[in-house]
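Task card 7
Instruction: Convert sequence to structure tokens.
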Amino acid sequence: MKLRYQFRVYPSASQQRELAKAFGCARVAWNDAVRIRQDAHRQGQRVPSIAEPAKTVITEAKKTPERAWLGEVSAVVLQSSLRDLQASYSNFFASRKGSRRGTKMGPPRLKRKSGRQAVRFTKAAHFSVTADRRLRLPKIGDVEVRWSRELPSDPSSVTVVRDSAGRFFASFVVEAEDKTLPRLDWEGTDTGIDLGLSCYAILRGRKIKTPKFFRRAERRLKRAQRELSRAQKGSNNRRKAKVAVAKVHARVADQRRDFIQQETNRIVRESQAVYSEDLNVKGMARTFGKSVHDRDQNAEYNIRAEGRRIVAEGRPDT
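Output:
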């Protein structure tokens, strides 16, 4: 099975500039391909596949003065952006036909420069991990990585992400052996999870208290947002204030992620089967707001990722 391992990376100032170029070029390639398909649709012409405009927005565009700077980044970055666009269109059409589960998806839209940006390097880009444990990326250089654990196998791709708080991460996709945890034979190993508001969840024999990470960070967030509202638009102080607000939100997101990961790991290791409610968390958030958002909506996914069998209420064994 495929797993994703994410590590913090620390590119130098020059490497950050090169990554900024890669982010921008990938965004331009995406937008050019979207415009070609949108124009063809408006004019009633046959909508080309993603493979057809790829030659126009990458190969031929590099030969023009307006897009010559696309050659300053790895071509794999641009090709990966178009493959992501193709997957987005496939999900959109599958959603319209009803063959895709989940909420209805809209068509891909033009991308704007935002706080979170990402580019993906595949094996065709010849990225590698050097002998001194750095990540070597084409046309960027050797980037320092803060390794927290070993990769189980050679990665097939790596995605470099810059979040809204200005932090950089490298997300590796690797192949790993699907190992099943040993069966638990003692009694009382089935666990039911009842999510609540006064406490995070009620399990067999214990309760998980609500950590309320967001409410504990409200004072810092209020101070940061006040500084942002007072800063002049377009100034460096406003840019710094936006990063300060993003850092508060990023810290809350990290705390939530770490908390739910620890709790789901414990549940999986103590239980042979887990029963969970089928709740509409997004609908509850409209009524209860902060109390609902202060819990991770991906708890069931985290339990599944641990490899233990889940028996969800109203669903067959999986």
